[in-house]
Amino acid sequence: MKYRGFIIEKVALAGADFDFDENGLMIKRTIKSDEWYYEVLDPMENGKTFCTELTMSEAKRAVDDLLVVLNMRDNTPKSWAKLG
Q1: Closest by CA position to 5, among listed 54, 45, 52
Q2: Alpha-carbon distances, residue 25 vs 14, 16, 45, 62 (angstroms)
Q3: Nearest 10 degrees: CA dihedral of 73, 56, 38, 82?
Q4: Whose CB among 17, 39, 59, 73 lies 3.0–4.6 Å from 53's, allowing a Cys bridge?
Q5: CA–CA distance from 41 to each of 11, 21, 32, 34, 75 (Å)?
Q6: What confidence tens digit (pLDDT) does each residue in 21-59 have?
Q7: What does the alpha-carbon distance between residue 5 and residue 78 come to, in Å, rounded to a whole number?
């Protein structure tokens, strides 16, 4: 998903989609919603990771906070050119 010039991607935490029951037999399990995080990528830095957050709203807030500090509307070449 693109958000104000950044790319926010949903990423699964490393883990297995199986578990073991009380008899030691492997059983399938589903990934829970809390086993995901959101990675914010900066296209202006060749896709380098800007930050990672646990929720989409936290990821958007991190982007908004950075843009406020930089006094920018979004993370685009046009906005960066206005700073110069």
Answers
A1: 45
A2: 21, 15, 47, 43
A3: 0
A4: 59
A5: 12, 39, 24, 21, 11
A6: 888 888 887 766 567 899 999 999 999 999 999 899 999
A7: 11
DSSP state of 32: P
Q: Phi/psi of residue 28, each to 5°?
A: -75, 145
Q: How far is CA 42 from CA 1, 21, 51, in A?
A: 12, 42, 9
The pair of three-digit structure tokens given for residue 68, joined into one six-digit string: 């406020």
- In the numeric block, which tokens belong to residue 57? 């709203």
Neighbour tally for 3: CB within 10 Å? 15
Q: What is the pTM of this model?
A: 0.75
SS3 content of the chain, % helix, strand, coil (to 5): 35, 35, 35
Q: Any idea which residue has 């406020």 for tokens?
A: 68
